[in-house]
Write a structure and sequence with these properties.
By secondary structure, the chain is mainly α. The protein is 63% helix and 7% strand. The chain contains 6 helices and 2 strands. A two-stranded antiparallel ribbon has the order 1-2.
């Protein structure tokens, strides 16, 4: 097969000589029948060259697309990893919550009044008190006399008292 960068053009001189499209169709059909099978139309080969900048830009764009694709795949993988961690932690949280409910029920059953009473009687050797031993009487003085204890004087009062005594002494 021919080179991929080659462009092929078919050149037919009879088509250029005719003036209208209808003439082209009829002339070319009649000429094809009249020509020898060994005579082949002339084919021109023209080679197109790729620009060197276009090859570099194609490589650059391909690398950029691969990097972007890799980045998207990496971010999706990280997101899935985080979602899995969150799901695991939520499952662990639900297990811990159910265990907490169980422990709360067990704690409530242990601190019930009946259990506390049994523990006090059997383990600690305590006895249930009756109403007669529970009452204690206290004597209260009911007089109208109120005794106020003498308070200690402050420094200013002591000095004032000393001057008053001195004045009384000199007056006689």
């Amino acid at each position: 097969m021919a080179d991929r960068n080659a462009v092929f053009h078919y050149y037919n001189a009879d088509i250029e000589e005719s003036s209208s499209d209808t003439d082209i169709k009829t002339d070319s059909a009649s000429k094809q029948n009249d020509t020898d099978p060994e005579e082949k139309p002339e084919i021109e080969y023209r080679r197109t060259e790729a620009r060197s900048g276009s090859l570099i830009s194609i490589i650059f764009v391909s690398i950029l697309a691969a990097v972007l694709l890799g980045t998207v795949i990496y971010s999706l993988d990280r997101r899935n990893t985080m979602f899995n961690k969150v799901a695991d932690k939520n499952q662990e949280l639900s297990l811990v919550k159910s265990d907490n409910v169980r422990l709360q029920a067990e704690l409530e059953s242990r601190i019930s009044a009946k259990n506390v009473e049994d523990y006090a009687e059997n383990v600690l050797g305590m006895k249930r008190i009756d109403s007669k031993t529970q009452i204690k009487y206290i004597k209260i003085q009911t007089g109208d006399v109120v005794n106020i204890p003498e308070q200690e004087k402050g420094l200013g009062a002591k000095i004032k008292g000393f001057f008053e005594k001195c004045v009384e002494y000199f007056r006689g």
